[in-house]
Design brief:
Largest sheet: 6 strands, parallel
Number of strands: 8
Radius of gyration: 21 Å
CATH superfamily: Glycogen Phosphorylase B
CATH architecture: 3-Layer(aba) Sandwich
CATH topology: Rossmann fold
Helix content: 40-55%
Oligomer: single chain
Strand order of the largest sheet: 3-2-1-4-5-6
Shape: globular
Structural class: alpha/beta
Number of domains: 1
Distance between the termini: 50 Å
Order of helices and strands: EHEHEHEHHEEHHHHEE
């Protein structure tokens, strides 16, 4: 099963349509090979309308093994990612959503990150990168679905976004912060000099 979401890139929104097409071609090929593909709408960034129109056209073809949804909602979305915990099920998150980097490690879900939208962001060992190229996307998705060594790595890989003990750390800060009017007084952000230098 593939869970697919591709957003526009804010600095490349005028290329959203051409950047999406190789991904849709790859999803169509996977579906033709028997893979269940769930596609969801992008966010409302510039260029998103182009993507939605392409997804609507894709959905209108009613291809076997494909579903297009506006949104799955948090619980269903995470539920699909959690299926990756089962070694008997082949699940992959595909696209360029930040959830592919930040949320999938918690579910040990193999992920294919497409294009430049998440360039330079921290990612776990469960994330593979692909260009806007149908063959490259297919290669990495099939690795997520069928490469037993990579799937095993994903189930044991560390989550780079998890530090642990958040509750005690927050409680310690709150217990030791000095209470007073300086804590609650509104601060203005005009240019001026502070104890640590200039701010603007």
């Amino acid at each position: 099963m593939v869970l697919f979401t591709q957003h526009s890139v804010s600095t490349e929104f005028d290329h959203a349509k051409e950047q999406l097409q190789p991904s849709l071609n790859a999803m169509e090929q996977l579906a033709a090979e028997g893979v269940q593909v769930i596609l969801t709408y992008p966010n409302n960034d510039a260029g998103g309308r182009q993507i939605i129109e392409q997804l609507q056209a894709f959905a209108s073809r009613q291809l076997p093994n494909t579903q297009v949804h506006r949104s799955l909602g948090r619980h269903v979305y995470h539920g699909v990612l959690a299926l990756a915990e089962n070694p008997e099920l082949a699940v992959a998150c595909v696209g360029n959503s930040s959830s592919g980097l930040k949320e999938t490690p918690a579910f040990h879900c193999p992920t294919v990150n497409i294009g430049s939208r998440q360039e330079g962001r921290l990612r776990g060992a469960n994330v593979l990168d692909a260009a806007y190229d149908q063959a490259a996307i297919l290669e990495e998705v099939k690795r997520c679905l069928h490469d037993s060594a990579f799937r095993k790595l994903c189930r044991t890989a560390a989550n780079p976004y998890w530090l642990g003990d958040a509750g005690p750390k927050i409680a310690e800060v709150l217990a030791n912060v000095e209470l007073g009017t300086s804590l609650i007084r509104k601060r203005m952000t005009l240019a001026g000099e502070t104890k640590n230098g200039w701010y603007r």
